[in-house]
Design goal:
four-stranded antiparallel sheet; alpha/beta; Rossmann fold; 259 residues; 11 helices; 2 domains; six-stranded mixed sheet
């Protein structure tokens, strides 16, 4: 579904991404791991249109999307979340969800005045969709809560819910587990798996929690120093000497061998 070929992203003399090539298969939950500064988030930002790469190419379903804006990619079904949730803090959870679909009839003054019946029908449909998302994520108890009052984990669930308000083909999740307690992390993980299995969502996720990665992801791609270091099943990646040296720590293999 996504193919990245020989991608470079330089900031002055800093080579944040330095010749990375990856493929994300349709229907997969692909993990992207690596030490801080490996280039993971920069790669996400290039694919999602926030940066134009220094060189290289990105394809979505065989169509080159290199350099397209986030708005253009949104309409092609490519969405991303952020490590720090970007909610509208003064709106309710339901209203946050209802803000997502683009080109709503009620956004135009002419339509609001002269096509009020259509505006009401569309608003009712979007509200119904938002309530469906709220039920799917099992958060009806906060549906009318201001988003700014949510916990960190609840805000991450809301971010995931926002991707469900449109027909997403692929969702890039940036550290969805950061700052989230274990109970809510399990809830988020369950929602990701259900979206993948029941609704055909494709995911690529940056994450540092290896238990979370092990539970959800196949395959796993490891980056280091702006390049792809290894990729494959999580068990193989965790046993790779280069990965242990670069990311997981030299003590992990010995620790696992003693268990």
């Amino acid at each position: 579904m996504i193919r990245v070929e020989d991608l470079h992203m330089h900031f002055g003399g800093i080579k944040a991404v330095n010749g990375a090539s990856i493929e994300i298969a349709e229907g997969s939950i692909t993990g992207l791991i690596g030490p801080n500064g490996a280039g993971k988030t920069t790669l996400f930002n290039v694919v999602a249109g926030h940066y134009t790469p220094t060189s290289g190419h990105v394809w979505l379903d065989g169509e080159e999307i290199t350099g397209l804006s986030p708005h253009e990619l949104f309409h092609k079904g490519l969405l991303r979340t952020f490590q720090i949730a970007h909610e509208f803090s003064t709106l309710t959870v339901r209203d946050n969800l209802m803000m997502v679909p683009g080109d709503q009839a009620g956004e135009g003054l002419w339509s609001a005045w002269f096509r009020s019946a259509e505006v009401k029908r569309q608003e009712a449909a979007i509200r119904e969709k938002a309530d469906e998302v709220i039920d799917f994520l099992e958060i009806p108890h906060v549906a009318d809560e201001l988003a700014g009052n949510l916990s960190g984990g609840q805000k991450k669930l809301l971010e995931l819910g926002r991707t469900m308000m449109v027909d997403a083909k692929i969702v890039f999740l940036d550290e969805v587990g950061a700052g989230v307690n274990r109970t809510l992390l399990n809830t988020i993980g369950d929602a990701i798996v259900r979206l993948n299995r029941e609704r055909g969502y494709t995911f690529c996720m940056i994450e540092h929690d290896m238990d979370f990665i092990s539970r959800l992801c196949d395959p796993v791609i490891v980056m280091a120093e702006g390049q792809v270091l290894a990729q494959g099943k999580v068990e193989d990646v965790k046993a790779d000497e280069r990965v242990i040296e670069a990311y997981l720590g030299t003590g992990l293999k010995n620790k696992e061998a003693s268990v």
